[in-house]
Amino acid sequence: MDRLRQLVEHGRRFEVHRLVEEADQVAVALGVTEPGWQGVAEVAKVFRFRTLDDKVVFMEDCLDWEDALARLRPS
Question: What angle (nearest 5°) sits at the alpha carbon of residue 25, between those of residues 22 and 28?
């Protein structure tokens, strides 16, 4: 969280573009902007949670939104 806080202090912004929940996992597409950039960069990730306490136990970088959706495990 400290790293994200530092990035925001320097002008970088994160916005959730798309989100799909499937059982104990979430696919998310984030838009990232920064002063001086032309447009928005989009990153996609899949997070898996431990259902006992909802802590993230796995995070996977994806090529794009379609890749993130494909990496979701069926429930």
Answer: 90
| Whether 23 contacts 7, CB under 8 Å | no
pTM: 0.78
**Average pLDDT over the chain, rounded to whole?**
88
Q: Residue 2 carries which side chain, given as an amino acid letter?
A: D
Q: How far apart are CA 33 and CA 39, in angstroms?
A: 7
Domains and CATH numbers, the chain: 2-71 (3.10.450.50)
Cα–Cα distance measured from residue 41 to residue 1, given in angstroms and rounded to the nearest whole number:
20
Query: What SS3 class is residue 49?
Result: strand
Beta strands in the chain (DSSP E): 13-22, 25-33, 41-50, 55-62
